[in-house]
Amino acid sequence: MNLKSNIQNSKKIYSLGIIGGGQLALMLTEAAKERGLKVCVQTKNSNDPAVSKADHFLEVDPLKIKGNKELIKFCEKIIFENEWIKIEKLSFIESNNIFIPSLKAIQPLVDRISQKKLIDRMNIPTTKWIPIKEFKDLDDEEIKNWNWPLMAKSFKGGYDGKGNKKINDKDDLKSFLDEIKSDEWLLEEWIDYKNELSLVGSRDSDGTIRFFPIVETFQKNNVCDWVLSPADINYDLKTFALNIFSSIVNELNYVGVLAIEFFYGDKGLLINEIAPRTHNSAHFTIEACSSSQFDQYVCISSGMTVPEIKMHSQGALMINLLGLRTNYPLSIEKRIKMLSKINGSNLHWYGKSKEIYGRKMAHLTFLLKGDNHAKRVRESQEILTKVRDIWPSPN
After folding, report:
1. What are the tens digits of pLDDT across the range 286-297?
2. Full DSSP string of 196-242
3. Which residues pair with 18 in a beta bridge?
């Protein structure tokens, strides 16, 4: 394990330590630096995005407990880039409430099965689900209670379309199970939804909850393509979503930033998944809000006064830029130059070492001027056309 630093005094206590070094850690680090805080990052690759901005980093796999222990020596508080952590091992080294959120609060959210059990226990609407292992034991009559197609999801690690698989019939399921050779998946009923919504908010140590605008997300092959804020929803639906969020974070005594993805359609508002962290759907908050999702997490974790959240504009558009194939005619440098010339563009480049097909490389944010939803949709479509002419979606 190599300890590397951008400064002279490697024994200095840092305000925040981040487990993980990807683009979320990068934006957390940037937010911390704006607040005058010093950051140490634990990541296994010195080329990971957050390393260039951190004051200090531990070059060790974030899942290695030895590295986590070392991180604690340098940092007053430890925050997480994502939920892929080893709760059972971290619990042996927690002291003085160093982890934000606490391990107890985050534990029910680190995998899809425990999330579903929490949601069911709280009697919150979600998709009908069953572990694959249990589904295989159903008799023919019981299987009739399930309509094809179904959605298979891995217990852990699914993101950006990974860990998801549409299952069209029983033969399709058998082929899928033969291929993966694992029972660590669950099946969900297939939902024909009208809208996919996302709500990101924060809860501080005093129990105060703050919300960002509910947004609508637009997917291609289970990967978020673009986000429009705010979503066009009525008061009752908005209130229901806010109440669901509040119920979950209060039930868990959760401190930090959390995201909930919803399906909305004929079956009403259903929780799709919960992400106990900052989230792609709220990247627009960096430009569009008085305090971004990253700023909220940094302030809450470091004990600073947590700002209220207000939007600076009528709305916002966020567009993900994913890696293209090597034979794409425009180089990255050319694409970035062309995108920067689009009026109002705010580019966040993640600094990843290699463009890989389908990999998140950057995002763009545009502040919208339309004073109603219809105008903002038209404005967004015009911008999307310009962006996708330069950098198309690989999906």
Report:
1. 999 999 999 999
2. EEEEEEEE-TT--EEEPPPEEEEEETTEEEEEEES----HHHHHHHH
3. 41, 79
Is 32 inside a domain boundary? yes
Domain match, 184 and 200 both: no
Query: What's the number of CA atoms in the CB half-sphere (13 Å) around residue 23?
Result: 17
Measured CA to CA, the distance from residue 228 to residue 288 in angstroms comes to: 12
Other CB atoms within a 10 A radius of the CB of residue 332 amount to 16
pLDDT interval class at 222 (50, 70, 90)? confident
Element of type H or E holding 252: helix 235-252
| b/e sequence 294-331, b meaning 16+ C-beta within 10 Å | bbbbbbbbbeeebeebebebbbbbbbbbbbbeeeeeee
> How far, in whole angstroms, is CA 289 from its chain's centroid?
18
- Is residue 174 domain-resident? yes
Q: Confidence class of residue 6 from pLDDT cuts 50, 70 and 90? A: very low
Q: What is residue 159's predicted lDDT score, i.e. its pLDDT?
A: 62
Model's pTM, two decimal places? Answer: 0.94
For residues 350-354, give the mean pLDDT. Answer: 94
- Name the strand (E) or helix (H) holding 164: strand 164-167
Are residues 74 and 204 both part of a single domain?
no
Bridge partners for 218 per DSSP: 226
Q: What is the CATH number of the domain that holds 180?
A: 3.30.1490.20
- Domain-located, residue 118: no
- Residue 117 within a domain: no
Count of structural domains, the chain: 3
Domain that holds residue 167: 128-189
| Cα(315)–Cα(37) distance, integer angstroms | 30
Give pLDDT tens digits for 113-137.
999 999 999 999 999 999 999 999 9
Q: Could you give the CA distance from residue 189 to residue 29 in angstroms, rounded to a whole number?
A: 39
